[in-house]
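ok so i was messing around last nite and threw this chain in just to see what happens. nothing serious, just curious
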Amino acid sequence: MNEINTNKTQRRSLFLWISASLLIILAITVLIGWMTKTPIFIRFNSHLPIMHVNVALCYLFSGISLLSLSFSRRFLAALTGLVVFAIAGTTLIEYGLSLDLYIDQLFYFTIEGPSTNFPGRMAPNTALCLLLSGINLILCSLQYRFITNIVIKISSAFCISIATVALFGYVTGMSLVAGWSEFVVMTLQSAIAIIVLSSAIFHYQYKLGKRENRKSHTTLLIAIFLSLTGTAIFWQIFSAQQYLVIDKFAQKNADRITNDLQEELEDYSREFKLMAHHLKTNNGYNKNFWKIDAQDYLDGYAYITGISWYNSHLELQETQFRSVSYDKDQVNSAILELLNNIKLKNISDTVIHVINKQVIVLLTPLPPSDGQFSGIIVTQMDLPTLIESVIKYELINKEYFELYNPTDLIYSSGTIDSTTLGKGATTHINFATLDWKIKIYPTHDSLTLIRSNLPTLVLILDIAVLTFIALVMFFFETVVWSKKQVEIALNEKSVALAMRQAVFDASNYSIITATPTGLITSFNKAAERMLLYRADELVDKATPDIFHDKEEVIARAKELSKQLGITIAPGYDVFISLAKQGIPDEREWTYVRKDGTRFPVKLSITAIKDTKGNIIGYVGIAYDITELKKIERMKNDLISITSHELRSPLTAIKGSLDILSTHKESDADIKIIEMGRNACDRLIRLTNDILDIQKMDAGKLEYKFVDFPLKNLISKTIEINQFAANNSKVKLEQPKDIPNCTIHGDEDRLIQVLTNFITNAIKYSPEGATVSFVISQQNDRVRIGVRDQGPGIPAEYHNILFHKFAQVPLTYPTAKKGTGLGLSIAKSIVEKHGGTVGFDSSPKGSTFWCELPI
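result:
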């Protein structure tokens, strides 16, 4: 299993490694391109937009974050994700608030290619995708949460969708689809990089969700991705088409205005040429004709502000002006300078110039006389008035108009907000010496008339369809997932039931389960073999009473009623009364087979509880102890015979040693006699303990339960053990405060328990030490403890102290070794009284205690 998990982790890490490596390589390549000013590293060809430094940095940090996730370096992953979030977020703030925070020009320099409205700034769709990716990388570094997992996968699918739309625009040649409105478009490298980055994040979260056995919502996310992508593509196509229509409309009007202006200027050029020919007569030039024609032009055209006649020496002959807003002297000085700068004798056609961005000057040469230059007519026109007369008033309200000569702006119809419009249209006027550029942008009023609601309608309909599809897919996936989970649960349950049944049937123990009311619910093969009943004869039909000895059940009911202080009726309650209270219940019973034969069993009954702790049934596990009973009887007979046979000779030996001790001959004789007496005493104690143990195991140890004061028990125990304490030079201290309470039990047996505690305390105490009682009462129970001042009990003996023949090594050479049965016997006696035994130990001494009901 560990190997499988390791392989899965390696595959997941490999995917992240590959994705991270691609992003880092792309970022480093672009950064090198900017530092070395190598365009091929920044874009694939000169017709594509360039990737900027801030975008490359985002991909570099994103790749580092993915690598950190693959190596479980969550802090570094979150930190680098935060950097991506900050860079992309700052760009979106610039777009949203129309600010320039001067981060877009980082390492930026002009590279020949498509121009943008925001040099150095990443595209808004790129910024949005990187912002969401930065958030996703931060969330990936946090502890797994189901809702976080879904949010990350949905936002990743959204980013993939946006990048796919841009990629679609490049593949189909619809560059406008790769961007939003007239903003910077997403680069081809960014579209690919965002797909790689978001796919890696999605894959990482998908694996985490699968590991947690949570719904992946893959079908739903695929539906969302396809719907979002389709919606975005159609919306972008319709929006792009609309901008094309707007630009086409602007181009049409630009061509119209250009033609009108050029025709108007050409007409004036022809008319002033005719005027020049009209002035010439056989005797020279007629001034009267000049005055008449000049006045006609001034009266007929509001934008003609003045007409002047210069002779061959460029001296002013005649001039006529109307009132104007500009400075005539300044314009006349400019005209003289213009006349002096151009090679007038070489001109044969009209020359047109713009002075001070306000006045258009037409220079029309007079017909030559005898092949010589005769003079020139200078016509001044007010530029704004001319344009407004040529461009109809309705047209001016529909477009923003700009006129450049050739790059200097000489006329504008208003302030242009190009961030809310299309690209507009540009045309040129090349006439005479003019090189004018005209730019036209549709106004908001005209856009309202031109724009279609179709993109918005498509967007709304697609969102509605997307919502419907998402709900349907969510419902479908939930149903499928729930069905799968039910199938898994049912399969696991059937496997568990099959395994449980196999264990039940393979066991040599009778295993029977029943409801809280006693109805048998399972009956294994061993039970069938023991009781000769078939499972189908008893399951859901009978209670365990059917194979129990009735008299035993009645006797046990009386015993439990006395022990628990409540009335227990003969029947099913007899078996479950202790288990219901959480008390272990293991005892011998007699089972009655279907054929009426009987055999002894050891039966253990335990409550079955649900996850909330409620009892939902009981299980009884029993095994046939017929052979064990035979062996037990043989053992008991052997012990009984041996013990009784030993008692008589031991008593005789002890008596003989007592007699010999009175006729001591030497110290050596005394020592030998004392060793014999100690060995004899030990054998007698061992024989008595073995007999007690044998009686306890057989349930034949007799008890005489009576009520007696606790004070009597303590005083008698001290009296019995005072001599042994004095003999070992240990002080047995009388307790100062004994609770005034009554014990119901066998006083002699309880004295035996306390004597065992005192004997052990004396045995493990140094000379001059004190053995004391620790007695306390709490509610309806009293605790009696015996405390010594010995070295404490080694930790390795704590778990076996109350086992048979368990002994702790003696600390003092003078101490006498015991049988190892005393604590086991004490435990059995106290439990027979409904109490418990235990001990507390430290390097400063130990306390053995028993707790009894009062």
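not much to say yet. The mean pLDDT is 78.
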